[in-house]
Task: structure prediction
Amino acid sequence: MTARTLPEWLAFIERQHPKTIAMGLERVRAVADAMALPGRVLSRPARQVTIVGGTNGKGSTVAFIEAIARAAGLRVGAYTSPHLLRYNERVRVDGADADDAALVAAFEAVEDARADVPLTYFEYGTLAALWLFARSDLDLAVLEVGLGGRLDAVNIVDPDVAVITTVDLDHQDWLGGDIDTIGAEKVGIARAWKPLVLGDDDPPSTVLGHAYAIGASAVRIGCDFFFEPIDAERWRWREIGCELELPMPRLAAPVQLRNAAVAIAALRALPIDLPDAAYAAGVREAQVAARLQRFEREGVEILVDVGHNPQAARALAAWLAAAPAQGRTFAVFAALTDKDVVGVVEALAGQVDRWWLAGLADTGPRGLDAEAFAERLAGTAAAAGDRCATVAGALAAARSEAAAGDRVLVFGSFHTAAAALAAFASD
Result:
């Protein structure tokens, strides 16, 4: 058989399951067992493992954990999703994206082991990442949950520390229609007698109840560890017996302090000692694309963000209010069909002067064209916005109207952010 390239493998694995999402661990666990390396099982891909779940802030929290651990000299693997521009972004070893050859070898290993077991795109990718990690002699693997937690493919791994950043409404068709039900799904990544780090000030009762029932040690923000700004350049993280004075993160938005604080708590819950200097260096250097990522063109500030649910929109609104533009604020908004787009607009309406609505019709069954998107937003502040077939077209239209001192926010999904970043790459 002719060897497949990485793009050919990605096209192949998209066709291996009739559904985009199929919750459950039996299939992926069976293939993982068949792929086990001699003396090294995929369910133990590193000497220490952290799984990061939650509604928002997962990617940033992973980035902080990874950066701090690497600053301390640890060899770290990080698995995140989805990607923005290249699939390779999902799998990092020692700070570098996996190259095409490594991913192809991993996909070949999955295919050799799976026999007739159908796997979704995400399950296939998760097994490939774990296979690579198991071969990479890692001190720490940081795994981001794709959807939910209890039945997510990464949950075949037993973490030494589990993290739940936040719990809010999102993916209700899969996880349930209320916070307690969603919390019950997300806390499925917790393990008996292991630390569970919680980034919500008031976690759902289902999260705390499950932790108590299995003997997981809940480490709660605002109860067991704390954070507060000192001034414009510094902030403080503390718990009983430890206080760290740290530089402000490079990542913008007040919520990033919370994400950094949760990451520090997760690392301190592991049975490893890190120097204080590593925490400072990691917080300062951590980066992740499309989290209020800033560009400037002809005096116009352009911000790209993956925020796609009301909780994320509230965080965006708080940042916009705290750092007002000199002039007007324009929004380029495009989202998928299963999102609470009305709730998103309501959260941001007070900070936006004009809207552009863009289509995502080319993103698969969850995509909407601009007209259908506008119909879903009827009665909101965004409904009267200009409509454009593509994100790139909407961004170009907003930029053409913006003057120096104005701000353009491009947001609504990973697809939206990816289209904006691609436009800037060719700008």
Remarks:
- Residues 64 and 412 are 23 Å apart (CA to CA).
- The chain has a mean pLDDT of 93.
- The first strand starts at residue 48 and ends at 53.
- Residues 100-114 form the longest helix (15 residues).
